[in-house]
Design brief:
Structural class of chain A: mainly beta
Number of strands of chain A: 11
Radius of gyration of chain A: 13 Å
Shape of chain A: globular
Order of helices and strands of chain B: EEEEEEEEEEE
Number of helices of chain A: 0
Distance between the termini of chain B: 41 Å
Strand content of chain B: over 45%
Shape of chain B: globular
Order of helices and strands of chain A: EEEEEEEEEEE
Radius of gyration of chain B: 14 Å
Oligomer: heterodimer
Number of strands of chain B: 11
Helix content of chain A: under 10%
Helix content of chain B: under 10%
Structural class of chain B: mainly beta
Largest sheet of chain B: 6 strands, mixed
Chain lengths: ~110, ~110
């Protein structure tokens, strides 16, 4: 069965370190998204991609970057981790734009100390 | 920018009571989706509404899209403990604004 996976599931890192969170989907979806979830804020979009070599900034993109070299993967990099980036990160994918539902991965809980 | 607000933030009910969460957008939406997130889990798609005034039902869940396409609601009849979780609405603007904007979510607790 097609799925979307994230790794690691839990990560503790120190302030200033570079961190990369992996997202891999086997749906063959063109669209992929990264969200962060914080209490009281719901899900906020960090970056998204509509296809290979395409990346776009979301509403909270500062301090984060993504790259899309193939259809299956959209890794999220925190250039220099800050305590404010302690959060739960969800990757999602969808078949297309417009009315398509999003399929979410299991999430990565990141703690920056 | 576009904002989607959701109320209440938290609701605690006795099993068997009804529950409603409301979603309001600052701008007109092309469509709205609803997701459920179980405690410790990830959001899972429930339904999508597209037409003005649309009403859809899934067993005990009733979803409505407002006439002006700026608000929506989810009503659960006779809650069960399996309904526990956070319910998110997610609105999509029209035209060039094609991204989903998630509401802040409503956490539902059901006491047996």
């Amino acid at each position: 069965d097609a799925e979307i996976t994230q790794s690691p599931r839990h990560k503790i890192t120190e302030t200033g370190r570079q961190v990369t969170l992996a997202c891999h989907q086997t749906w063959n979806h063109n669209n992929m998204f990264w969200y962060r979830q914080d209490l009281g804020h719901g899900l906020r979009l960090i970056h998204y991609s509509y296809g290979v070599q395409d990346t776009n900034k979301g509403e909270v993109s500062d301090g984060y970057s993504v790259s899309r070299s193939n259809t299956e993967d959209l890794p999220l990099t925190l250039e220099s981790a800050a305590s404010s980036q302690t959060s739960v990160y969800f990757c999602a994918s969808s078949e297309g734009q417009g009315t398509y539902e999003q399929y979410f991965g299991p999430g990565t809980r990141l703690t920056v100390t | 920018g576009q904002q989607v607000m959701q109320i209440p933030q938290y609701q605690h009910v006795q099993e068997g009571e009804d529950f409603t969460t409301y979603c309001n957008s600052s701008t007109t939406l092309s469509n709205i989706q609803w997701y459920k997130q179980r405690p410790g889990g990830h959001p899972v798609f429930l339904i999508q509404l597209v037409k003005s005034g649309e009403v859809k039902k899934q067993k005990r869940l009733t979803f409505q899209f407002g006439e002006a396409k700026k608000n929506s609601s989810l009503h659960i009849t006779a809650t069960q403990t399996t309904d526990v979780g956070t319910y998110f609405c997610a609105g999509r603007g029209g035209g060039a604004t094609n991204k989903l904007i998630f509401g802040t979510g409503t956490l539902l607790a059901v006491q047996p």
